[in-house]
Write a structure and sequence with these properties.
Oligomer: heterotrimer
Largest sheet of chain A: none
Chains: A mainly alpha, B mainly alpha, C mainly alpha
Number of helices of chain A: 12
Largest sheet of chain B: none
Helix content of chain B: over 70%
Number of strands of chain A: 0
Number of domains of chain A: 1
Order of helices and strands of chain B: HHHHHHH
Radius of gyration of chain A: 19 Å
Radius of gyration of chain B: 17 Å
Largest interface: B-C, 42 and 52 residues
Distance between the termini of chain B: 54 Å
């Protein structure tokens, strides 16, 4: 219980740091010094202290978006096992709830974007929904592969047996699941090659364009919510990629946190070495991720 | 045993799926070459119990032919054709990949049902062999360019050979060499014909070969 | 002896690629054909010893089809020499579209003809299922350049279809061969040999499921090559665009060789006690082929395609005969001989018509009897020979198959068979009689002199067809009976 609660707290506290790590890695690759590692915290803090501006055309839906995003992220963290360290809440089929929590958060962000009535935000919302419609099956299939391979119906139990039941008997399944999760992570967190977080041209953005109208504390919550989402995905990926399963939950959790930051470094490397895909190629890559996950499901003995 | 060859089998499946989704002909040629090399390695791994020179001869022949000679031939047929991608296939690429996934599910299901008198080296071998065979057939049917159809034929052949490698431990060397030789000559002749078709028709679209019909 | 009969055409074929003088090369062609025929004749007198670990062994089926192939090839080689002489080396004007095209080098044509003979010989003499596959695929590859001898786009198209459809079909036969190997594998791990005799000796140990699946794949694969509908789509194109001598060999010899592949599969099924399974499939495929042929024959506008569809029909008859079993098997094998002889002759005559009229249209050709006194008459007589009228051999064999159907009590099959034979007769008769009668159009001289090399081979073949209808030599009858027994028919004598 104790390590699980601490693990969740660590997630709540360290989630924005992931963004800082990614940015630092990109800066190093570009030969810059880059912003401080803690810059995301400063941004969020500054935004929270500011006042908000609301368009008269918006309704309560617009304000609910960021709050629901953070709430879903917090509950999601409670369901997320840190590698071999069990989550705070474990029950049979909890991975479905996790996926649906992410879906709920996205639904409200999209609603909030549509609520503004802005053409750009509508476009961003449409893209977000289109891509996530492809990313979600991939995520679900990846989970299904894990569940099928381990025979465990809860995420914590399944993650606990990743080494003994997935890597050892059928390494390809583990590799495929990890690859699918990695692609979904990049897509869901609006990273290159799906979306360029640095761009400020509305036409090319997907995620950023939806939150253009949020300001002050609302935007701070949006940033924090997406940081939590990033932590959840990185946690899932690290759980598969760092299959260290010892008797001690502390050690397991520590390894997983190291893995999460390694994933962040990996994202930074990918962003530094790749260009954004053309929009028409994005669905193909996502379908590819889905195919890999489906292959993993089929390959399980 | 399964631990070593499973990654190769999965790679074969991925190559098939990529082939179904690839539009550029050069990429297709490269993918088929990769598949040929994978097949050679597979032959080497599965036939550990055999006399080494025989395994090396077969695997080497397969790698040499399918990995180097065929791609060269294909490139030669492509060169000057000014055609680099398959436009407007009968079945779109994303749909092809999804259909491929369906075929994979089907073959896994079938493979699980077949009872083999001899245990195969891996439970994946039969499904992967059948899936590769189906992929080849699909490519022949769903694509228009003559060259893609030859590639489809090669994939079909690869699938059947995978099956052979997996199951008939006995298939004598001379027969396997004969099969290899036949395939080689088939591709050679097809390459020559494609070359002639290109010179004669200024295109290599098999769907425009429609002057003969009833 | 078996190795010799294989090596002779192989070596001669390779040599033909290198020979530069036309005269030498043509002599080589005819000489090899005669040598091959002599060797085969010697095998009738004294059965050859198995060679190469019993991989090569001549049984009754093999000897039957080897003899037909060799005989037809020899006659065709004479025709080919005359044809090549008349064709010359200059460029030709394509009579359908007016473009100019040239022929492929003659050395390639002759070389491929001889290699084609070698591969067909291998098909008939091998007893090993794997080698059988290699040989059948080799026949495709050796014959593809024959089809594209005239280098124009229609022949290229036909060659492409032929190569691709047959290669894919035969690839499935390879899968079927592997399935049979799986069926023969023992739980202990050591697998059985793929020799037909070994497989049949332990037939009761074969896994029935795998064997059935393997047979279906063999049937689809070799059936594609044999031209069984609905897998026949390559056949009319290839037969129509190939030079007539190549068409004659494709139709008279190659299709039979593919049939050998199917017979081997049926042989295996029979020994495993599954004969009925294969037979039912053959009956269905046979009737479907005859139906397709009848439909396409009736309004056919191209007389070489007409003959090609007739081949589809006759392949259907042969499949039907083997499928019915009993006396019909004997009839089917006899029919294979008759069909080869008659169809080879008809294709040669069609080549003569084509040369005189410069069109393949059934409507444009009129008055063949007047324009070409010999070929025209042969064409008309050939019509009766191919449609199974007495006194030709085809009548006898088709009647035997009908008897088989009636003996087996399969009235519906018999009725369908008769109706389809009638439909094809009507369709072919209408077209071919119209071509033979009337006045030749403008630009076609009346009473043309024909070279002996163009008509004599056809006359010889027609004579054989007539002979087979009147009297079947004892040796042949015995061979047919033995071959019928091999593939599971009853021992039945004329």
């Amino acid at each position: 219980m104790m390590p699980s609660a601490v693990g969740m707290l660590v997630g709540l506290v360290l989630a924005p740091l992931l963004l800082g790590v990614v940015n630092r890695v990109k800066a190093v690759f570009a030969g810059r010094r880059g912003q401080p590692l803690l810059q995301p915290y400063r941004d969020i803090g500054r935004l929270l202290r500011k006042g908000a501006v609301y368009s008269p055309t918006t309704t309560w839906v617009f304000r609910a978006g960021p709050v629901v995003g953070v709430a879903a992220g917090v509950v999601g963290l409670a369901l997320l096992p840190l590698g071999g360290c069990r989550a705070l809440v474990v029950f049979s089929g909890d991975f479905m709830l996790l996926i649906y929590l992410l879906g709920t958060a996205r639904f409200f962000v999209v609603l909030a974007a549509l609520d503004t009535g802005s053409a750009f935000e509508g476009m961003g919302a449409s893209r977000e929904v289109a891509f996530s419609a492809l990313a979600e099956p991939a995520l679900l299939l990846a989970m299904a592969a894990l569940v099928r391979a381990t025979g465990m119906r809860s995420l914590s139990d399944a993650m606990g047996k990743v080494w003994s039941d997935v890597w050892l008997p059928s390494m390809p399944v583990a590799v495929l699941v990890a690859a699918a999760l990695a692609v979904v992570l990049l897509a869901e967190n609006a990273r290159i090659p799906f979306d360029d977080p640095n761009t400020h041209l509305e036409l090319t953005m997907i995620h950023e364009v939806m939150v253009l109208d949020h300001s002050g504390p609302d935007f701070g919550l949006v940033l924090y919510g997406s940081a939590l989402k990033g932590w959840i995905f990185a946690g899932l990926l690290a759980g598969v990629l760092v299959p260290l399963r010892t008797g001690s939950p502390w050690l397991n959790a520590g390894a997983a946190v190291v893995g999460i930051f390694a994933v962040a470094v990996g994202v930074g490397v990918v962003e530094s070495s790749m260009a954004r895909l053309r929009l028409v190629r994005v669905p193909q890559l996502l379908v590819g991720a889905g195919v890999m996950a489906a292959l993993a499901v089929l390959l399980v003995r | 045993m399964g631990w070593e060859i499973d990654p190769i089998l999965v790679a074969l499946v991925l190559v098939n799926l990529l082939l179904l989704g690839a539009s550029r002909l050069a990429a297709c040629v490269r993918l088929v070459a990769v598949q040929g090399v994978l097949l050679g390695v597979l032959a080497l791994l599965v036939q550990v119990g055999w006399s080494p020179w025989r395994a090396v001869l077969l695997a080497g022949g397969s790698i040499l032919l399918k990995g180097i000679v065929f791609p060269r031939l294909m490139w030669k047929a492509l060169r000057g054709a000014e055609i680099r991608r398959e436009m407007e296939p009968y079945v779109g690429y994303t749909l092809s990949v999804l259909l491929g996934l369906g075929m994979l599910g089907l073959t896994v299901w079938v493979g699980g049902r077949l009872t083999l008198p001899v245990p195969a080296a891996s439970h994946l071998l039969v499904p992967v062999a059948l899936f590769t065979t189906l992929t080849g057939l699909f490519l022949i049917v769903a694509r228009k360019k003559a060259i893609t159809q030859v590639l489809g034929y090669l994939v079909l052949e690869n699938g059947i050979v995978t099956f052979g490698i997996a199951l008939s431990h006995e298939a004598p060397l001379s027969v396997e060499l004969g099969v290899l030789l036949d395939v080689f000559v088939a591709v050679l002749v097809m390459g020559i014909i494609i070359h002639n078709i290109r010179e004669d028709f200024d295109h290599i679209d098999a769907d425009r070969l429609v002057s003969l019909k009833d | 002896m078996l190795l010799l009969v294989l090596l002779l055409p192989t070596v001669a074929g390779l040599a033909a690629f290198l020979v530069r003088a036309d005269r030498t090369r043509r002599t080589l062609l005819v000489g090899t054909a005669l040598g091959h025929l002599a060797l085969v004749a010697a095998m009738w007198a004294r059965p050859p010893a198995p060679a190469w670990n019993r991989w090569l062994d001549l049984d009754a089926v093999g000897l039957l089809f080897l003899s037909v192939t060799s005989l037809l090839f020899t006659v065709a080689s004479f025709y080919a020499v005359g044809y090549l002489k008349r064709e010359g080396h200059q460029a030709h004007r394509d009579f359908e579209e007016g473009r100019v095209f040239s022929d492929a080098p003659e050395a390639r044509f002759v070389g491929c003809l001889l290699l084609f003979l070698a591969s067909m010989t291998l098909v008939t003499v091998t007893q090993h299922l794997g080698l059988l596959w290699v040989a059948v695929e080799a026949t495709t590859l050796a014959s593809a350049p024959l089809i594209s001898f005239h280098r124009h786009h229609r022949s290229l198209e036909a060659t492409w279809k032929y190569l691709l459809i047959c290669s894919v079909g035969i690839a499935l036969a390879l899968l079927g061969t592997f399935f049979v190997a799986v069926a023969a594998a023992r739980p202990g791990g050591e697998s059985a040999s793929m020799l037909l005799a070994d497989l049949m000796a332990e037939a009761d140990l074969l896994q029935p499921g795998w064997l059935r699946a393997g047979f279906i794949l063999l049937l689809v694969g070799y059936g594609t090559k044999m031209g069984l509908a609905p897998l026949h789509t390559w056949l009319p194109d290839a037969h129509a665009e190939a030079p007539s001598v190549a068409s004659a060999l494709l139709s008279g010899a190659l299709l039979n060789c593919a049939f050998v592949g199917i017979l081997r599969g049926q042989q295996l099924l029979g020994s495993a006690g599954l004969a009925a399974f294969g037979r039912d499939l053959l009956v269905v495929l046979g009737l479907v082929s005859m139906t397709f042929a009848a439909v396409f024959v009736i309004r056919q506008a191209d007389f070489k395609r007409l003959l090609a569809y007739s081949s589809v029909e006759h392949m259907g008859i042969m499949a039907l005969g083997v499928g019915l079993g009993g006396a019909a098997t004997f009839g089917a094998l006899l029919h294979a001989v008759n069909h080869s002889v008659v169809k080879g002759m008809l294709f040669m005559v069609s080549g003569n018509l084509l040369a005189a009229y410069r069109t393949k249209s059934t409507l444009a050709v009129r008055g063949a009897v007047r324009a070409l006194p010999v070929s025209g008459v042969l064409w008309l007589v050939g019509l009766f020979a191919i449609t199974g009228s007495p006194p030709f051999g085809t009548f006898l064999s088709e009647l035997t198959i009908l008897k088989g159907a009636l003996d087996a009590g399969r009235w519906w099959v018999a009725a369908g068979y008769l109706a389809l034979l009638g439909a094809v007769f009507a369709g072919m008769g209408r077209i071919m009689v119209r071509m033979a009668q009337g006045e030749p159009g403008e630009g076609v001289a009346v009473g043309q002199h024909e070279a002996w090399s163009a008509v004599l081979p056809a006359v010889v073949l027609l004579g054989l067809a007539l002979l087979l209808g009147l009297w079947i030599p004892r040796g042949l009858a015995e061979l047919l009976g033995a071959a019928g027994q091999v593939v599971g028919g009853a021992a039945w004598r004329v």
